[in-house]
Amino acid sequence: MARTDPKKDVVIVGLGWTGAIMGMELANEGLEILALERGPDRYTVPDFKYPDVIDELKYGIRFGFMQKPRNSTLTVRRGLDEVARPYRQLGSFLPGDGVGGAGIHWNGQTWRPMEEEFRLRSYVEESFGAEIIPEDMTIQDWGVTYEELEPHFDRFEYMAGIAGQAGNIQGEIQEGGNPFEAPRSRGFPLPPMKQGLDAQMFADAARGMGLHPFPRPAGNATAPYVNEYGMQLGPCNYCGFCERYGCLNYSKSSPQTCILDALRRKPNFSYRVNSEVLRVELAEDRQTATGVTYWDEEAQEEVFQPADIVLLCAYQLHNVHLMLLSGIGQPYDPTTGEGVTGKNYAYQMNGGTTLFFREHDFKPFAAAGSNGMSIDDYAINRIDFAAEGFIGGSYITAGISNGQPIRGISLPRGTPSWGPEWKAGIREWYGHAMSIGSHGSNMSYRDCYLDLDPTYTDRHGRPLMRMTFNWKPNDIRMTQFMRSKIEPIAEAMAPDSWQSSYKAEGAQYDVRPYQTTHNVGGAIMGTDPNTSAVNRYLQAWTQHNVFSLGAGAFPQNIQYNPTGAVGALAYWTAEAIRRDYLPNPRPLM
Amino acid sequence: MMTFLRILTALVLIGIVALLAFIFVPPQVTGPQTALTADWQPEEGAGEYTMRLADCEACHTAEGGTPFAGGRPIESPLGTIYSTNITPDPETGIGDYTLDQFRNVLYDGLREDGAHLYPAMPYANYRRLSEEDVRALYHFFMEELEPVSAPDHENEMPFPFNQRWGIRAWKWVGLGEGNLSSEDRGAYLVEGPGHCGACHTPRNAVMAERGYTADDPAFLTGGEIAGWTAPPLHGPASALRGWSDEDMKLFFASGRNDHVGVNGEMALVVRDSTQYFRDEDLDAMVAYLKGLGQPAPATAAAADAGGTQAVLEAADPGMALGPRLYLDNCNACHFTNGRGADQVFPELDGSSLVTAASPVGLIETILWGAELPSTEARPYSLRMPGFADRLSDEEVAELATFLRDGWSNDAGPVTADAVAERRQDDTREPSQQPQPAQR
What we know:
A: alpha/beta, B: two-stranded antiparallel ribbon, two-stranded antiparallel sheet, 38% helix, 4% strand
């Protein structure tokens, strides 16, 4: 039997980055808030404590901090004519669970999208003509501009204590930074990370070719830091255990280090763990939500939690799933192109070249998730899309993030993957390989989307979500273009050998190897209720007291890691709720 | 012979009468320092603020219990005393105390029924509270708190220490001269409500503080609490050596600064008391503590005469066990120079915890870890993990000995037996013990 708990002003679904930010911002308004987190609670000690957490088998291979597919998964297919099958083993992407969410196990790369990316369709049409946009490409403007978001990027970066070198402060180009970035109101709160030999060699080669290397913006603290909430970071010691691990050293920007203990002090904020939200409940007229129903793992019962405002702050895939299950927005139909919920799912198009040097020891064990040097010379605002025949761009980067023994050792192609020759290869090449990667955009397409699976259900009897996604020629041309830029840099560095791995014509999406956990879209933002699921304030068009945070709002994927934009959008939405919505709850557009 | 017996009998009778008088004749009480009118009322909020200054909550609240309902065990060398319920419940608390009876508790260690209180209640320090603060406290406990019914926990004191009349004799020698409040705000806070001397002043043969004001040279030169050294607050080994005014203020406000993280019982003081001090009171307290005489920190050249940093950075595989354990367990946060990082990772070089006369605090910190209190100024309850599950007694001893002798430190070695004793005697509250990770 379901129980009903006392009403709250706000219920937050998921306590990761966006849930913690929204909790803090709205708790400061005096609202009564409950956050529901499907996973367990997590603290640096004991959950990430040294040395237990630097266990590659437990966390790197067996995904100790990730969602278990037996509890939560989706089905995947590559086109409308395929039958989707459940994602039974984590591979291509790794959604986190527990308090802190993916904010505990990321690398910390914290970028701002380019100005042009926020108004991509307009930019392409104005600069190159609408005719260069392929017929099945469904890219859109975000409905919010970089200029509007700049104060919120700034706020997020100062809250999270990001280390980096600004390239453009109020229009003034800064030596050593990214000259192609959008203007910042001020520099980073912390100086950039130290760079390994590989990044220095890459930067030297790039500089020699007239390119513009700069240090990657890092959520790995380079000095002790205190943020606006009084929360603290300790300096990173380059232990090389960032991605897939919680930080043992209080050094990685995360909800734990930057927000949660300050939030826990708020008497009007509380949270429950092991509480998975099953659906958002709507009023009879469907104009508003009345709260959420969740599964209380401890009590083994469903609970209805009434609330005036529902904030969807779970991972992108789950926010979209909840919207589809709850009837928030019309589900997207790829045959007619109508409907909005589930529309424009997109991913990330990455590639890379690995270089082997007998004479160099890169000491990969002394590294961090975000150290490294990058160039933005082939970014979205640097490419003539009409001339090159694709829409998109990449940042190109070198920076060893770890020297972990199981996954962290690159071997020259042809080396056996087992036996004495593999062992000999490991001995010979450990510490002698580096890579140059391209981290590229991914456009949105008419037949890349999310809906409810017709066959498979989860442990609560709900239909699984179905992902329909495949690589498209436009994005493959983009990544091949990056290959043509990276390989000359690699050659200029004169390695003993090198090998490339980029998607080539005809490449099909493969859900098995890890690629990136940058899943975006499906709850996209915009200014037209016919083409977006949420408005420019991330407010559901159809239920004005529901807001959907996170990368689901991206109408196509940016060429950068998404967290910076996710954080800025959260502060943007928090401000809209505080200033405009609370005094007069209504559709803000 | 008869004369002798008569004299003896008379003496015995006199002795019995004296003893009965000693036990039953009510002692003189000190009375108010200044006369306030009967209708005098404390300013709004003064009651709670004075309670914070006097840190009543830390001792009178059991771990996880209702504030001020008592029940916290206080270990003394003579046995375990449990703090009492000081909510205004008339049956189990102090609800029927008159103002005079309340003052008698604070000034003379006398209960409502005239029984003598163990000096675990720091009336030797609270004697210096101003009448205004006595009245403010009385207002807080009588008017501002909800009564809680919670019977007091029986003390665990063996004979003869369970005979409270003996405390009367202790008071004659233990309470010191006079009880006037200092006119200097900083001195008043430290000597009176703050009762800093209760832990930080050494005690004499009868367990009385060797001085209650800055006029006594032994005042605040270091004491002991729960086996841990409460460090000196002035003099050559002062825990405040090299601290700026801002360092001191941030420590009291948040339990952390560029040098240390608060540890041991002092964490409760920051959690329940000093974090609530007004800025001007912190300034006054800092000025007073500075005035006691703070030596300059060791110069950089003298700081590492033994070359500890060089040994650690050379990382010779043949290095001794102590530095190797340091590199493998401590270096990630505290670094090869032992300086840690401002406000996050405490300094080990020059740390009063590391070099304390008693190594108990250091051993327990290595074994069980530590946690900073969450405060308004710095909400993060940063935790150091414990290493009890990772290091043997011998290894903890080697590591502790290395730390006590590393950089500019110069304190005696630690034995494996001393570690074994602490490991067996895990008296931590359950909430302080590491929780198993939820998976």
